[in-house]
Structure formats: C-alpha cells, structure tokens
Design a protein that fits this description.
Number of helices: 4
Helix content: 25-40%
Strand content: 25-35%
Order of helices and strands: HHEEEEEHHEEEEEEEEEE
Shape: globular
CATH class: Alpha Beta
Number of domains: 1
Number of strands: 15
Distance between the termini: 28 Å
CATH topology: Creatine Amidinohydrolase
CATH architecture: Alpha-Beta Complex
Largest sheet: 5 strands, antiparallel
Radius of gyration: 17 Å
CATH superfamily: Creatinase/methionine aminopeptidase superfamily
C-alpha cells in the first residue's frame, strides 16, 4: 500500500473525528471504576457512537484466521497488552490498570486513540509503568515533524522505556491511518534513530507505545485477539492520532492540541 498523504481539508475532517473519539473515550475512562465490567464500558462507548452518528472502527474488524472483533472497545487489564475483548465477567478491581483502545470513523476518516487508566489504589510500581508509557508517547509525538524519520520515533520510545527498566512490545506497532484504520507506514516502538522513511507534511500516523514491566514477549490467547505478556507481567498502552504539519505535530485526538502545539 502506498503511503497516503492527506490534504489540509482531509486533516481538518480527521480532526473532527479525533475530537469525537476523545470525547467518547473521556466518558469511558471516567466510568472505569471498581465493580464495573468491561462489557459496561463497551456499552457506554456504543451509546456515544450512536449519539454522534459515527461508525466503530473496531466492531467486525478481522480477516484471515482472526474472527470478527465483537466490541467497539479493546479493554486490556493488567497483564493484557492489547485487544482485550469486553466481557460481562471481566470486572475492574481496585488497583487495576486498564488499557482502553477506541477508534471511530467520521466523514470517512479514522481516529484511533488509547489510554491506560489507573483504578483506585494503584501500586507505586504500576503507577510508574503507566506514567512512563505515556511519557514515552510524548517523546515520539515531539518528533512528529517534517524531516524526522520513523526510526527517530521508535528509538525515542524504546530508549525512554528501556532506560527506566521496561521493555517495548515489538509484535504490535503503530500505523498510518486515514480512510482505513491501518495504512502504511508501520510505526514501530523500537528502532534506530536516523533510519526509516522521512515524515512528510500531510502524513497522519497513530503512535502507540505498548510497554511491559517484564519481558517483551507476547502470547495471544485462544480467542485469537487477547494479547498478554508471556510472563504475565504488567503492561500499559497509550495512543494518539497525529498529523505532521509544516508547523509541527498536531495531535488530532487531543482537544487542546493545535498545529505545532502538541
């Protein structure tokens, strides 16, 4: 697939999608409390989708030997890295960290975003993991500028995480996004600075560090979606959709952002 460069108007439309995705994710994250099931979080997101008359990017997604995804959210608690399926019997507990991944289409364009929520009395070790993962994403966002290379982003995430004793997941990566949720280029969370394709004005990418407290290896469960740490260590995940503009990075899924002001 050829990398799709977006026009200023297309980026404006993607910004509208990003604002809707952020608003719905805000509501879902606020509801992530002890005793609430991940199925209930999925219901909240579905109500938001209906209210805004947008389309889920996740529901029904699949192909090859992977069954259609049954939810509009991915809800990934504790040692689940990504792609946890919302369930009535998956109930949030005090002290959990839960990654909530959400994507929608509006105006035919995708907005993809994720946060890891700390629920109640989270241990200091788990809090540091979550905070470091979010900070690793910010290091990559700052490099989403014309002329940077994809390896610069991956190197920044990897170096930040590893310098703090964590590992980055290599089996899953970020991606370009636009009229399809997953477009070229792939955006790894590891790499060598100065390598890879250069970022051009109009490129829109979803950057999404997945950081483990233990080893980086992944195990996918029998449902063919839920990805967990092989050693069952804790994991955290953050994601934003970012447009590369002449002014600098524009985080389309962050309401306070503007071109050049992430």
């Amino acid at each position: 697939m050829r990398i799709q460069i977006k026009s200023a108007e297309e980026i404006r439309l993607m910004r509208e999608a990003g604002l809707v995705a952020a608003e719905i994710l805000d509501q879902v994250c606020a509801a992530a409390k002890p005793g609430v099931s991940t199925w209930e979080l999925d219901r909240i997101a579905r109500v938001g989708i209906d209210k805004h008359k947008v389309k889920s990017a996740f529901l029904g997604y699949g192909g090859y030997d992977v069954p259609p995804y049954p939810g509009v959210l991915c809800t990934s608690r504790n040692h689940v890295i990504v792609h946890g399926i919302p369930r009535k019997d998956d109930v949030i507990q005090d002290g959990d960290v839960i990654g909530i991944d959400f994507g929608i289409f509006k105006h035919g364009f995708c907005a993809d975003t994720a946060r890891t929520v700390m629920v109640g009395n989270v241990s200091p070790a788990n809090r540091k993991l979550v905070e470091a993962t979010e900070a690793a994403l910010e290091t990559a966002i700052a490099l989403c500028r014309v002329g940077s290379r994809l390896g610069d982003l991956g190197s920044a995430v990897q170096n930040y995480a590893e310098s703090r004793g964590y590992t980055v997941v290599k089996q899953f990566v970020g991606h370009g996004t636009g009229r399809q949720m997953h477009e070229d280029p792939q955006v790894p969370n590891f790499g060598v600075a100065g390598s890879g394709k250069r970022l051009k004005q109009g490129l829109v990418i979803a950057v999404e560090p997945m950081v483990n407290a233990g080893a980086p290896e992944v195990e996918v469960l029998d449902d063919k979606w839920t990805a967990v740490t092989k050693d069952r260590s804790m994991s955290a995940h953050f994601e934003h959709t970012i447009a590369v503009t002449d002014e600098g990075p524009w985080v389309l899924t962050r309401p306070s952002s503007s071109p050049g002001k992430p």
